[in-house]
């Protein structure tokens, strides 16, 4: 069967100080029912899928952008998500496959910071920009009661990313030099064991 989602959100947007500061925030709840899950049947090694359980995500996000000086704009986004299964899934013989409260593969905390300085060079609009992102690690202990948990595979790690860009706008073109992932971060987002 198809899965389905009910989503509830309350938020607000606000401009202050003659529009130099903008704030945007919300809190939300998402209920996910009849989750489609893929697995392999153990007796015949045939891949299949079924509707297994329910999950819920609660959280908030807040974004602030501010012009702090002529040409300098700073931005900060912060988000928190508590995403977890709200029902247990059992397999053959009553073995627990996934426990109630087991988190989904979502970073609990995310933070993004940006800074952009706009200026003029030889009568042309130019800019320098910095973008930084952070995603936290979920510290919840592995669900060792679950037959599907591999104790050698940890939860998704924290990650960081730093990008820099500088450019000049010439007659509708944006000529830029940039560097991405300057922290040279290489987190292992996913891992599994194959027979």
Commentary on this structure:
With 195 residues, the protein is an all-beta fold. The protein contains no helices and twelve strands. It has strands spanning 4-16, 21-33, 36-40, 47-51, 55-69, 72-85, 89-90, 96-98, 109-121, 124-135, 159-170, 173-179. The strands form three sheets. An eight-stranded antiparallel beta sheet has the order 1-2-5-6-9-10-11-12, with no helix packed on it. A two-stranded antiparallel ribbon has the order 3-4. The two termini are 29 Å apart. The mean pLDDT is 90.
Jot down its keywords.
195 residues; mainly beta; eight-stranded antiparallel β-sheet; two-stranded antiparallel ribbon; 12 strands
Largest sheet: 8 strands, antiparallel
Shape designation: elongated
**How many helices?**
0
Rg computed from alpha carbons, rounded to a whole number of angstroms: 23 Å
Mean pLDDT figure: 90
Helicity range: under 10%
Low-confidence stretches: none
Query: First CA to last CA: what distance?
Result: 29 Å
Total number of β-strand segments?
12
N-to-C order of helices and strands: EEEEEEEEEEEE
Structural class: mainly beta
Query: Could you tell me the strand content as a percent range?
Result: over 45%
Q: Tell me the strand order in the biggest sheet.
A: 1-2-5-6-9-10-11-12
């Amino acid at each position: 069967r198809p899965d389905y989602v009910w989503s509830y959100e309350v938020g607000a947007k606000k401009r202050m100080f003659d529009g130099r500061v903008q704030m945007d925030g919300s809190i939300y709840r998402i209920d996910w029912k009849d989750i489609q899950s893929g697995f392999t049947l153990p007796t015949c090694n045939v891949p299949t899928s079924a509707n297994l359980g329910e999950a819920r995500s609660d959280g908030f996000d807040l974004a602030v952008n501010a012009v702090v000086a002529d040409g300098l704009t700073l931005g900060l986004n912060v988000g928190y998500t508590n995403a977890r299964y709200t029902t247990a899934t059992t397999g053959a013989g009553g073995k627990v496959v996934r426990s109630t409260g087991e988190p989904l593969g979502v970073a609990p905390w995310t933070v993004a910071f940006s800074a952009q300085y706009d200026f003029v060079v030889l009568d042309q609009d130019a800019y320098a920009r910095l973008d930084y992102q952070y995603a936290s690690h979920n510290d919840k202990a592995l669900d060792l009661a679950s037959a599907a948990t591999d104790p050698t595979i940890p939860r998704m790690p924290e990650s960081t990313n730093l990008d820099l860009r500088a450019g000049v706008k010439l007659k509708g073109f944006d000529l830029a030099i940039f560097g991405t992932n300057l922290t040279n971060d290489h987190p292992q987002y996913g891992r599994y064991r194959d027979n």
